[in-house]
Amino acid sequence: MDAQVSVSEGPLDVTGYAGWRRGATGSDIGSERWAGASVSWWLTKQVALTFSGGRYPSEILQGLPSGGYLTLGIRIAAHRPVVPRVRSIGRPLYQIDDGGGTLRFHLPDAETVAIVGDWTGWQPTPLQRAPGGSWTLDVDLGSGVYRFNLVVDGERWIVPDGVPAVDNGYGGQSGLLIVP
Known about the structure:
The protein is mostly beta strands. It has no helices and 15 strands. Helix content is 0%, strand content 54%. Strand 1 and strand 2 (12-21) form a beta hairpin.
């Protein structure tokens, strides 16, 4: 399990992360925790002074040990990366009722819709067709920020219209679902 938080204020960008891995009972692999942070101070729109430090976990498959790091550097970019601002889309994607929750999306022309996200391990979970061109899924999500995409007709990965999106690190985008 791991989490990351990024905040930008004025010339500063701050990112922190933390993680935890529990070793399997009866194995030689123990539990492990890691954390770190990075601070960038933008001197101009293209140049930042960056400091980061923390601990990283062992790499079990390759047998590499955990460790720590400290870095200081100068970042040169075509432009300062934009940290997305999440805005309301006017209607909730996730409605909580009677102890459970329902995700709802409006895709009237779709034949099939599935959702992939960090809570599904990025494996497709089918949504059910509802009246009026909506697609729903009953799912119990705790408070937090979740990344997801919809898989339409088995082939197109999309971020639904009106949903805030962030870079997915693979040249595309993922939608943000915020559960209060």
